[in-house]
Write a structure and sequence with these properties.
Elements lengths: L7 H18 L3 H7 L7 H6 L18 H14 L1 H21 L2 H12 L5 E4 L15 E3 L2 H5 L2 E12 L6 E7 L9 E7 L5 E6 L10 E12 L3 E2 L5 H37 L1 E2 L2 E2 L4 H29 L5 H25 L1 H4 L6 H8 L9 H13 L1
Parallel strand pairs: 1-4
Antiparallel strand pairs: 2-3, 3-7, 4-5, 5-8, 6-7, 9-10
Bound molecules: flavin-adenine dinucleotide.
């Protein structure tokens, strides 16, 4: 039985984040988007609120919260700024999540603590130019040649693309083939520190949405790392990565809710003030229908996201629930932001109305961490076996 009522502490967290997002993150969000400027100045105040170690125990420098609190936080940040929400979501769920879930005690001390405290940002590198949805087809290799084996090292060669925090991270989790004769069962995860010789930061992308977040290519040119940088079990990195993605999908769903809520709230405000044909456009039934659909679907999406988060927090299987939540919330975010643009008319098309930014940012949710097509494959597999 799942109880969807937020606890008093969760309600307080939501209010605190709402105030913080409005006062600290919202101002400048449009300007950062326009110039594609990474929000460096926001990192220290967000770190002080434990936003870079949300679900990490306090003993390791984190906030000691869980998936439900992560969803609440991401909705509030995405409500005002998708780029900042993506930074928080990817750092927590992917790089930090992988190291905390599968790293050993020493790795937790060395890497989880600075990430959780927000002293360093994390990036998680799976996608490659030739392998996106089919991630197990990756070409990046990690080998132990005779020369490197003597030193107890791994040598990584290859490239990754579209990596969030690719050019700004201090700590990278990199997935690489450790057995070229195998597909998903020959992949391992490694932790790599910035400034390691052979880690080359490539093209920084100029994007449609979440423009102030950092998306970059990475190249590994004879990148040598010590054997203790292997995370988890050799050849088990892909299975571990899939579990990490399940958690990440709840976060993307929560971000989608934030975009849809922005679309709805701005549309209600605008529809009440914009006059045409001698009355406010909110008096027209077609406007009311749009608002009603947006509000109803938003509530449904939030319930799906909360359900997946609560299942995770109760240590129950949440693989299917996470895909369902991400799929529905992402597609709702596109529908809602599209309708918001329509309600705003010509103004919606202009930069001065923020709904055009919500619309552009929302598109990421249908693509990142498994596209909608991939979520449908996951759900169908669960249905059909
Ligand atoms: C802003 C942004 C940030 C990102 N951050 C990261 C990151 O931090 N780390 C990381 O590793 N990756 C990251 N990615 C990459 C992202 O996960 C991939 O873009 C995504 O998984 C899709 O892969 P692809 O782009 O190669 O598209 P493709 O896999 O080439 O897909 C192209 C189209 O084909 C469809 N398709 C593919 N296979 C099938 C199928 N079997 N059945 C039906 N349709 C199919 C897809 O749904 C899509 O519509 C990021 C992407 C973006 C846009």
């Amino acid at each position: 039985m799942i109880d969807f009522e937020l606890t008093e502490a969760q309600q307080l967290l939501r209010q605190m984040l709402r105030d913080f997002a409005l006062q600290e993150i919202a101002p400048g969000a449009m300007a950062r988007d326009e110039a594609a400027t990474f929000p460096h100045a926001l990192i220290p105040p967000m770190a002080a609120l434990k936003l870079f170690g949300i679900a990490i125990p306090e003993a390791l420098g984190g906030g000691g919260m869980a998936a439900m609190e992560t969803a609440i936080i991401l909705e509030e940040i995405a409500r005002v700024d998708g780029a900042t929400a993506l930074i928080v979501a990817s750092h927590n769920a992917l790089c930090l999540g992988h190291l905390y879930r599968f790293g050993n005690t020493d790795q937790k001390k060395r890497f989880v603590v600075p990430l959780a405290k927000g002293e360093k940002l994390g990036a998680w590198a799976l996608t490659e130019p030739e392998s996106g949805s089919d991630a197990a087809a990756m070409q990046t290799t990690a080998v132990r040649t005779t020369a490197v084996r003597k030193k107890g090292e791994w040598m990584i060669n290859g490239s990754k693309q579209f990596i969030t925090q690719g050019s700004t991270a201090g700590i990278y989790v990199i997935l690489a083939k450790t057995d070229r004769n195998k597909a998903s069962k020959g992949i391992s995860a490694f932790v790599v520190e910035r400034d390691t010789p052979g880690l080359v930061i490539g093209k920084v992308e100029n994007k449609l949405g979440v423009r102030a977040s950092d998306t970059a290519a990475l190249h590994f040119d004879q990148l040598r790392i010590p054997s203790e940088n292997l995370i988890g079990t050799l050849h088990h990195g892909f299975q571990d990565a899939l579990q990490i993605l399940d958690g990440g999908r709840i976060g993307i769903g929560a971000m989608a809710i934030g975009f849809a809520r922005g679309a709805l709230e701005d549309s209600i405000r605008y529809a009440g003030t914009r006059q045409q044909f001698g009355r406010s456009i909110s008096a027209f039934q077609s406007t009311q229908s749009k608002l009603s659909d947006m509000a109803t679907e938003l509530e449904a999406a939030r319930l799906l996201v909360y359900r997946a988060a609560l299942l995770k927090d109760q240590n129950k299987s949440f693989h299917l629930a996470a895909s369902e939540a991400k799929l529905f919330a992402s597609e709702l975010a596109m529908r809602a932001t599209n309708q918001a643009l329509q309600i705003h008319g010509g103004l919606g098309f202009m930069k001065e109305a923020e709904v055009e930014r919500y619309f552009r940012d929302a598109k990421l949710c249908e693509i990142g961490e498994g596209s909608s097509e991939i979520q449908r494959m996951v759900i169908a597999k669960a249905l059909l076996g």
